[in-house]
Write a structure and sequence with these properties.
Layout (H helix, E strand, L loop, with lengths): L12 E4 L3 E9 L3 E11 L9 E12 L24 E7 L5 E8 L2 E8 L6 E10 L5 E11 L4 E3 L2 E7 L2 E8 L3 E4 L2 H6 L13 E6 L3 E3 L8 E8 L2 H13 L4 H13 L10 H16 L18 E3 H13 L3 H12 L13 E3 L14 H16 L3 H19 L29 H20 L3 H21 L1 E2 L2 E2 L27 H11 L25 H13 L3 H13 L10 E2 L5 E2 L4 H20 L2
Antiparallel strand pairs: 1-2, 2-3, 4-9, 5-6, 6-7, 7-8, 8-16, 9-14, 9-15, 10-11, 11-12, 12-16, 13-14, 17-18, 19-20, 21-22
Helix pairs in contact: 4-14, 5-6, 5-7, 5-14, 6-7, 7-8, 7-9, 8-9, 9-10, 12-13, 12-14
Protein name: Glycoside hydrolase family 15 protein
Organism: Bacillus changyiensis
Keywords: Hydrolase
Length: 623
């Protein structure tokens, strides 16, 4: 089952260069097909930094040989009205899997191609718009880029300036442009008399009229460029706009070359099919795009969680970048992520933070943070081979290990919490449990902390860490494993797919637990209709939870690789690929009517592509 990205309106295909972020959306409210920039963000990719007003920015086109407008919203009311088919979305892709997003769509005989990119090292976003005819007949067309601004505080010729906050300004124009009109869209594009509406406190629709474009037949017309430039002041935004316009015709090529150079750093994955090669490149691209200018990795395409730093997710992106050999990015991401850490009253660290306030944004109680931090530091250090990382971060390593060793109860396990799934706990009528995930990731973190301690000649500490890890695994074996099946917690025999990670990504469980655990998970967590793996069994969480999740499906596939069952592994990997959007993005899960939730989550979905292909290569291709 394939779907476009927007059938859940919280899903977006992102474009970013670390300074600016654009959300591209293919379906609007009510699943209306439309190719638009849904939102722009500057500096902080937080919902509070939204630059556009709903419904964002899109394009209208008048083919002068046709009676029907390319008009997804039915805005134009002319004599013949909006007869004809709806807008058809023909093709979406990240060009070559890199950081330029392309959409081809048509209505009637009018074909529109847009490309959207963020030029390297600029606070700007560019969209090119080209047209041709479906029947390949020569024609002439006028393109009308539309943008809904939050306000207009000033216009300078055909440049319009919007102020979002004290240090967020947006300057926008189109090149080449004949005029820009704010106010009634339908009147602006049909040449009717228009009352200009500009107000610094109210949302304003803005329409640009461009010179008529010659359509040569089979080829697309010359591109029209729509530019969004941002800055911390009006002057900075205008300067950014001027600099971007100066090289506008070379910008797409320059951006593509920058992405090509970045991808050359990527580890050589070996030969892949064209489809897998595209998924590999897109997934690396999305991991890079999740990095803000200071290196902080965040979720970038999922509206409810936009602009938050989760330690687990950010470290997952960070370590994925390290494994793919984007070493500079991984180091910056590690330091940026850990700079957010604030201690809870019990000495552990909070789990989630807002990127603007840098304050905790907690909605769950999870004790796995310290184990994840130790893993993240070790993984980057082990790949980069720079002991300065350990030296710089030893206070955090020490705090994390001390907390783990001091927060086990009489069972030998880490104190009860929500485990890996943050939507579990008393706020949903569930008691916290001695979760297998929490104790296991803590044990793995201690083992890796021991390696780092040995490197610093802290051998007594290393022995202490190893002893603590062994004791945690022994406690798991005693309380959380039944007939070789690893269960969710000490309190229940229910299953949790996250335990499979401790055979693959965090190999710390005995191999004799692997087969019975996988057999139980296949029997009880594999969706009987859709395939794929549920993340857990009988937890009270949000709507749609008993559906296959991308992460657990990758994890179970990886566990099958460890078990030397290549065919079974690819059954699960292919399940995820078959449920991708046309542009190659994977969902977090599917909701009940087949709608995806959480597209563009490089921590959870796209990282699964990178990590599973690397594991497959290491287990099979190198033999």
């Amino acid at each position: 089952m394939h779907y476009f990205i927007g059938k859940n309106q919280d899903n977006h295909a992102p474009i970013s260069n670390g300074n600016c972020l654009a959300w591209i959306q293919q379906y609007d409210v009510g699943c209306r097909p439309v190719d638009k920039i849904s939102q722009l963000f500057f500096k902080y990719f937080d919902m509070s930094s939204s630059l556009l007003n709903d419904p964002g920015s899109y394009v209208l086109v008048k083919d002068h040989n046709e009676k029907v407008w390319y008009d997804p919203y039915g805005i134009v009311q002319e004599k013949l009205g909006q007869i004809g088919e709806i807008v058809s979305l023909d093709h979406t892709q990240y060009v070559n899997g890199f950081g330029i997003y392309e959409v081809v769509s048509h209505k009637g005989n009018t074909v529109v191609r847009t490309k959207t990119w963020a030029p390297p090292n600029r606070n700007a976003m560019i969209r090119s718009i080209e047209v041709k005819t479906l029947r390949s007949n020569p024609s002439e067309a006028t393109i009308y880029p539309v943008v809904h601004l939050q306000n207009i505080v000033q216009r300078i010729n055909h440049t319009f300036i919007s102020r979002i906050s004290e240090n967020q300004w947006l300057a926008t124009t189109v090149f080449p442009v004949e005029k820009g009109i704010s106010g009634n869209i339908a009147k602006a594009v049909t040449g009717s008399q228009t009352t200009i509406f500009e107000h610094s406190l109210l949302p304003v629709p803005l329409v640009f009229t461009t010179p008529p474009q010659h359509i040569p037949g089979r080829q697309f017309s010359e591109p029209i460029y729509q530019i969004f430039a941002t800055g911390t002041s009006k002057e900075a935004a205008l300067q950014e706009l001027a600099s971007t316009l100066k090289d506008i015709r070379k910008s797409e090529q320059t951006t593509m070359q920058a992405w090509q150079a970045w991808h050359k750093q990527t580890i050589n994955i070996g030969p892949l099919s064209p489809e897998l090669n595209y998924f590999w490149r897109v997934s690396n691209t999305l991991a890079k795009m999740s990095l803000q200018s200071d290196g902080t990795p965040i979720i970038i395409g999922f509206k409810p969680y936009q602009g938050n730093v989760w330690i687990r997710d950010s470290l997952w992106i960070t370590t994925t970048l390290a494994l793919a050999h984007h070493l500079d990015d991984a180091v910056r991401a590690l330091y940026a992520t850990l700079s957010y850490l604030k201690k809870r009253p019990d000495g552990n660290f909070y789990f989630a933070y807002n990127v603007v306030t840098r304050l905790p944004n907690e909605h769950a109680f999870e004790n796995d943070t310290t184990g994840l931090i130790l893993y993240g530091i070790w993984q980057v250090w082990s790949v980069v081979s720079d002991d300065q990382i350990i030296d710089d971060l030893w206070p955090i390593i020490s705090q994390s290990t001390n907390w783990i060793l001091s927060n086990r109860d009489a069972s030998g396990l880490i104190l009860p919490d929500a485990g890996i799934w943050e939507t579990f706990g008393p706020h949903l009528g569930e008691r916290f449990e001695h979760m297998t995930w929490t104790s296991a990731i803590s044990a793995f973190g201690l083992m890796k902390a021991a390696e780092m301690a040995d490197k610093m000649s802290k051998h007594e500490k290393a022995a202490q860490f190893r002893q603590g890890a062994v004791q945690l695994i022994e406690a798991i074996a005693k309380h959380n494993v039944h007939n070789g099946i690893v269960t969710r917690s000490m309190e229940t025999s229910l299953l949790d797919s996250s335990v499979t990670l401790f055979f693959s990504e965090f190999p710390i469980f005995p191999s004799q637990w692997l087969k019975p655990t996988l057999e139980a998970i296949q029997k009880r967590l594999e969706d009987p209709l859709l395939g794929g793996i549920w993340r857990h069994e009988s937890l009270t969480t949000e709507e749609g939870d008993l559906k296959p999740w991308t992460g657990p499906t990758f994890w179970v596939g990886e566990a099958f690789l460890i078990a030397q069952h290549q065919h079974e592994a690819w059954k699960y990997f292919d399940h995820n690929y078959q449920n991708s959007a046309f542009c190659g993005l994977l969902p977090e899960l599917l909701y009940s009517r087949g709608r995806p939730r959480g597209i563009a989550m490089p921590s959870y979905s796209q990282s699964g592509v990178i990590r599973s292909l690397l594991l497959y290569r290491n287990r099979f291709e190198k033999k």
